[in-house]
Amino acid sequence: MKITILNGAFEDSGTIEEYLEKLVEFLSKMKNEIQYFKLRDLEIKQCMGCFGCWVETPGECIVPDDTVKIRRAAVNSDLLIFASPLILGFTTSILKKAIDKMIPIVHPYFTIRAGEIHHKKRYKTYPLLGVLIEKEIDTDKEDLEIVRAIYERVAIEMATSLVFFDSDEKPPEEVAYAITNH
Known about the structure:
Radius of gyration: 16 Å
Helix content: 25-40%
Strand content: 25-35%
CATH superfamily: Flavodoxin domain
Largest sheet: 5 strands, parallel
Number of strands: 7
Strand order of the largest sheet: 2-1-3-6-7
Low-confidence stretches: none
CATH topology: Rossmann fold
Number of domains: 1
Number of helices: 6
CATH class: Alpha Beta
Order of helices and strands: EHEHHEHEEEHEH
């Protein structure tokens, strides 16, 4: 399986960083092809909402940055994993910026999907989505339900589905097994 992982941690500290390194190791041992992006090491500019990716350069953002690599890896993957510590109850802003810059993978035209109006697909297939989070000290069930609900909405807009939502509390080998056998 081809898996792309977007690490939204701001710094090389905290448990999510070590966890992801172990997860990548286990997934690789299980014969998966992994592309791993530490978003903090990439140049990711803010989406300006200019619609240039739909009108001027269809499928590509007109603001050059490293998200072109992320989009290409994602659309050529079987699974796209968003990984992030929670900060003030949600994933990091750098992960949000990367997700915003995924808009060129869909068309500006609309269709009905899941009983709602969403953008039409640009590609025949899209990767399934997964979310892996590092909880805060005070993270509760309601916080997790909110984060999960938002990423379920992201999945619908990206013409796919959320196949797993988990935290780094489970052993990485268990999560690797679940990912590979979903």
